[in-house]
Design goal:
With 156 residues, this protein is mostly helical. The chain contains 5 helices and no strands. Helix 1 runs antiparallel to helix 2 and helix 4 packs antiparallel against helix 5.
């Protein structure tokens, strides 16, 4: 077994890096969708949601940076073109959405996709004893589960 500079299995790290780049792509699409929702939301919930969407896109921006830096720490190269993001992402692109309920449903769906990928990465990082990635995924998951709960409460 060959090891990386961090002492992780090289072959397993390659697989983990691919999955982290998929997560990075998903977050980039999610981030841009949130920006669009923030700009275009209309209706009686405008003030509440305009601020909330900004909070979410700022959080996504921070997570994007953390994911890219983790990829670099693992000696990989983070994807950085929209062409790559679009080809790798599984989250839906939000386009021309200004209705509050449609916006919230899209956010819940997007976060569900993010959670799915994060749990896959958590399994990979756990198996290879990569505590850095493991910790990051655990933090993301616990935050996003709470966000989904809150948005589902808003939808009820």
């Amino acid at each position: 077994m060959t090891s990386t500079i961090l002492g992780l299995d090289t072959n397993k790290t390659i697989n983990e890096l691919e999955e982290l780049n998929v997560l990075l792509s998903n977050f980039q699409i999610y981030y841009q969708t949130l920006r669009g929702l923030h700009w275009n939301i209309k209706g009686k919930n405008f003030f509440e949601l305009h601020v909330k969407f900004e909070e979410l896109y700022l959080d996504a921006q921070d997570k994007i940076d953390l994911i890219a830096e983790r990829i670099l720490t693992l000696q990989g190269t983070p994807l950085h073109t929209f062409k790559d993001y679009i080809s790798k992402a599984t989250v839906k692109v939000g386009e021309n959405i200004n209705n509050d309920e449609k916006a919230i449903k899209l956010i819940v769906d997007s976060i569900s996709q993010l959670l799915k990928k994060e749990r896959e990465i958590l399994d990979i990082s756990d198996e290879m004893n990569d505590e850095g990635t493991n910790s990051m995924m655990s933090d993301f998951i616990s935050e996003q589960e709470k966000t989904i709960w809150m948005f589902n409460a808003w939808l009820d």
